[in-house]
């Protein structure tokens, strides 16, 4: 996959993309990340990329011209599959959206700044608008890092073990079950016995139950009936029965 990131601050990306899994994916040619400085496409001598908003108001707005020019430069070399504007008005970024984007070959991420971006960028250039949550950041650089990280790890070959992706939180709509490793007991806190039993079916059922319990406690909004299997329903009914007994 190729990812072009249009930003005013390319230096912000040097740490996150030069370490760990993303670094290895880049080294192996599985992910190509290009940082494009929007200021390089400004046509004035001061390389300014913002201006006051028409109609008045506080703050400055990122101008359309340098972003359009940057997209012309990208398009002359390769036509992107998706052009994503990162801003609060976009659809919320989820694991499902990450999986959707991971199937593309070429993404362009546009990092907004200041009070926003000239609306013509959204209307004429962007195919998608994405937000990473209901909060305000200083710019689109951190959201771009989040999107690249979440999408890259879903590309075949990026992670060593493909099964780990399938079992992660949100991959099937639920939060992931708890994990343990050596030692078997630490400071009086033991590992659940079922995980030491070697009984694969009992371990699978325990993990599914824990996943459902964790989701029920922390994110009940994720327990959509259409996503629950008959086994999930039986587990939840059993949990509800146990809770009822405890409350009596």
From TrEMBL:
A Gene Ontology molecular-function term? tRNA (guanine(37)-N1)-methyltransferase activity
Per the UniProt entry, the Enzyme Commission number(s) are 2.1.1.228
Please name the source species: Desulfofundulus thermobenzoicus
| UniProt KW keywords | Cytoplasm, Methyltransferase, S-adenosyl-L-methionine, Transferase, tRNA processing
Tell me the compartments it is located in: Cytoplasm
Which InterPro entries does the UniProt record give?
Alpha/beta_knot_MTases, tRNA_m1G_MeTrfase_C_sf, tRNA_m1G_MeTrfase_TrmD, tRNA_m1G_MTases_N, tRNA_MeTrfase_TRMD/TRM10
NCBIfam families according to UniProt: PRK00026.1, trmD
User: Where is each tRNA methyltransferase TRMD/TRM10-type domain found?
Assistant: 1-223
Q: Which EC class, in a word? A: transferase
The UniProt catalytic activity note for this protein reads: guanosine(37) in tRNA + S-adenosyl-L-methionine = N(1)-methylguanosine(37) in tRNA + S-adenosyl-L-homocysteine + H(+)
- This protein's source sits in the domain of life called Bacteria
Q: Name one GO cellular component term.
A: cytosol
Asked whether the UniProt record includes tRNA processing among its keywords, one would answer yes
Record PANTHER family: TRNA (GUANINE-N(1)-)-METHYLTRANSFERASE
- Major localization listed first in the record, in broad terms: cytoplasm
Q: Which family does it belong to?
A: Belongs to the RNA methyltransferase TrmD family.
In this chain, S-adenosyl-L-methionine is annotated as bound at 112, 132-137
Give the UniProt record's GO annotations in the biological process aspect: tRNA N1-guanine methylation
Q: Name one Pfam family in it.
A: tRNA_m1G_MT
Function in brief: Specifically methylates guanosine-37 in various tRNAs.
Question: Cross-referenced SUPFAM superfamilies, in alphabetical order?
Answer: alpha/beta knot
Q: What is this protein called?
A: tRNA (guanine-N(1)-)-methyltransferase
